[in-house]
Amino acid sequence: MNILRILKYVTIVLGLLPLVTAVINYKNLNHTLKLAAVFFALSFLIDTLSIFVKHFNMANNYPMFQFFNIICILFFGIIYYQSFYNKYIKILTLIMTNIAMLMVIFYTVKNSIWAYPSASNTVVSVFLILISLIYFYQLLNWQEFTHIERQPLFWINSGVLIYFSINIFLFMLYNKLQDKNYYYVINSVTNIITNLLFAIGLFCKPRKRI
Asked: Which helix (H) or strand (E) holds 139?
């Protein structure tokens, strides 16, 4: 069994970690974290189905990636909107979410739902990198003292920023890469790290919203 297959299976297994954590800590989850848990469940389901479809050569699994991009923008748009307290940032979040959604739909129609969503993935990455940086700005400029490491969304936001800021280059250049599977080791490793951070976030007890 080569390293690529091992990483693939480890990624699938660790995709369950945020879900298990959410179930264990469910009583302490607020509405935003429950919404995040639903997204992680959908993400795990789509990832597992896409790998299953590809492994058995049942069909092209790229439409699942296209669908995931829309789900990703929708859920994180709502999650971050609920997490911001500044009304202008909330408005900016709505604008960014709608622009990202329209761009993903445009590229999906333009490039075909059966093609690898390189452009759509890039749009999602830019959207989430920007919005996660805005959240960190809010977090670091909070007027009252708070232990940021005890904030669930600190960990979830960290996972979002790490995953998309690293993989954006892979998404942008995917169609030009020769040995795509080897480069996707990067994606698998960051996926593992991200799921660990998501699990830590869901294990934290929500405190004062910031």
From this structure: helix 118-140
